[in-house]
Amino acid sequence: MAEEKEDVAKLATEKFNNLVAATIAVLATFTALSAIKSSNVAQGIQQAQVTSNDNWAWYQAVRTREDMATYELLRLNQLHRNNPPRAEAGRLATEITAQEGELAHIRERKDQVQHDATAADASIASLNVFNSQYDISTGLITIAVSLLAICVLVQTRWLYWFSLVPGAIGLIFGAAAMAGIPINAGLLTNLLT
Q1: pLDDT of 35-48, one tens digit each?
Q2: What is the pLDDT of residues 112-156, one digit of tens each?
């Protein structure tokens, strides 16, 4: 009789350990898959950051060129206002027209570069949301796996069910990031950073 009770308890312990092991395997597999996706997001952030830096540097160069062209236009207009001889006035008028065209071209280019830089910054912000989701997912799943390991040691079923809470939330954050669904976890992210 005692041996039969011992076998039943052993079988229950084995089933419980198998359940915990299967849960750990699922969480670990999901974490491995999300690590690959998270790495891709991190690479996208790096590329967008390089693009943003390049575009903002180019924007500064174009702004400097715009300032120089503006000063040159002011100089030409000043020379033209000083009532130069007729031949000189015609040449200055032609230069002023050309300089105005150049300045318009520079401003158009500046606006395009600024738009590109702003778009890269927006891409970084968008990707950072998903990067944060992957970080939160990994952190919560790691907590769940740690709790599951303790659960096996102490053989406590309530701890198993409790460990599923951070695991499930981690799965939700990771799955949402994989699906491209942003979850604003600003409060949680601010607490952790």
Answers
A1: 999 999 999 999 99
A2: 999 999 999 999 999 999 999 999 999 999 999 999 999 989 988
Q: What domains, with CATH codes, occur in the chain?
A: 2-192 (1.10.287)
Nearest to 173 by CA among 157, 162, 189, 158: 189
Token pair belonging to 140: 């919560």
DSSP assignment of 88-102, as one string?
A: HHHHHHHHHHHHHHH
Distance CA 146, CA 81 (A): 81
143: which 2 tokens? 């907590």
- For residue 185, CA distances in Å to 97, 106, 129, 192 come to 55, 41, 8, 11
pLDDT tens across 96-120, in order? 899 999 999 999 999 999 999 999 9
Q: Which residue has the tokens 């943003």?
A: 52
